[in-house]
Amino acid sequence: MSARTHTLLALLSRVVDHVRAANTRAERAEAEARAAEASARRLREELAAQARACQAAEARAVEAELRICQAAEALGFGAAGGAPPAETPARLH
Question: In angstroms, what CA-CA distances link 67 with 4, 11, 20, 28?
Answer without folding.
Answer: 93, 83, 70, 58
